[in-house]
TrEMBL record:
Residues 19-179 form the Transposase IS110-like N-terminal domain. It comes from Halalkalibacterium halodurans (Bacillus halodurans). It holds the Pfam family DEDD_Tnp_IS110. NCBIfam families: transpos_IS110. This is Transposase.
Amino acid sequence: MKYNQNHKIKQITESTLVIGVDIAKENHVARAQDARGIEFGKPMNIENSRAGFQRFRLWMKSLMREHAKPDVIVGFEPTGHYWMAFAQFLRHEGIKYVVVNPMHVKKSKELDDNSPTKNDVKDARVIAQLVKDGRYSEPQVPTGIYAELRNGMNLRDRLQEDLQRVRGRILNWLDRFFPEFHEVFKIWEGKAALMTLEAFPLPQEIINLGAEKILRHWKQEVKRAIGIKRANALVAAAKRSVGLTEGLSMARQELQSLMEQYQCLCGQMEQLMQDVEALLEQIPAVPYMMSIPGVGLVTVAGFLAEVGDLSNYTHPRQVQKLAGFNLRENTSGKFRGQTRITKRGRPKLRSLLYAAIRPMVAKNREFKQMHEYLTTRSENPLKKQQSMIALCCKLIRVLFSLGHKRVSYNGEKCLGHIRLQQIQNAA
């Protein structure tokens, strides 16, 4: 991502051996050629194992010696997660590797033979041709702390999905067996509500216990904001409940299983976020990035997990492009199409930034003023959604600047352009 097209092309010289690899789950296929596109040797099958990778290295070295090519570049499609082990082997061996866009492979496969045929051997040749023409990108594979952060935030996403699924199942259970529960507890994840669901969730159990025993049970853990009035309300709700009354034994077992899953997931999430916070403490730029009002630990951790080390980038536009926030426009003659974001790159990064900017527009003074200015300015006012996207790009620039320069957030500097514009409009 650091290099422009000219630089990419200049890296492929007469002394460069270009290898294209079609990635698969068990067996990859490699083909080699020179900078002009002349193919060397026969296609090679690479088993996805250490022995297969070593065979590939010996094959590559023999071609380099035979054709006097001291330099080599290996290109492949980032297919699923199957490419990661191969990329790690190349990195450890000091072999330069790049990735090509799968859409480019699909759209250029007919250039050589004018045929829509697709197979692994042909795709490897197409990939090598794309690399030769400089149509590739250099992936930013996270290492060290940043690799730990990415794995940790990916795990957090999966835990969130599992937790949301379990929450939905618990609500489903309540709707079937005790729909009046929500009249007593507006938030079922409160401490007293959870104690009720774990100990006596069924209406008949609540009636049998009575308000006094229920209150004594609650007071074991909850000392404030709960009293006999709430206990009486729970008993009254149980008496008028219209919940199902058949199959209660298995229903109780079902809820017990769901509550165990819920508690387990909550514990795992809490421990994970403690570990993520410990990782962030090792990155010097983090305190400066978190000095932005409205930006918290999850936002900074997710940003660095997706972007990696900020020193690998020279300009925030590179991060903007990585998130898919760069603009595209279709024009032809006098026709000018609507400008939209490309949505290429890392969707998780784009989603994270958009989720972060929404509360910032409401609570961060500077971003709120920028949002008002962008949507109400006299010339070319933006729609609210367009303004949110523009502010996502602004947040990228602010995070990038604070992380690079290691300075704290300054709201006046953030508003500098808008202040100047307002002064000019007033004049």
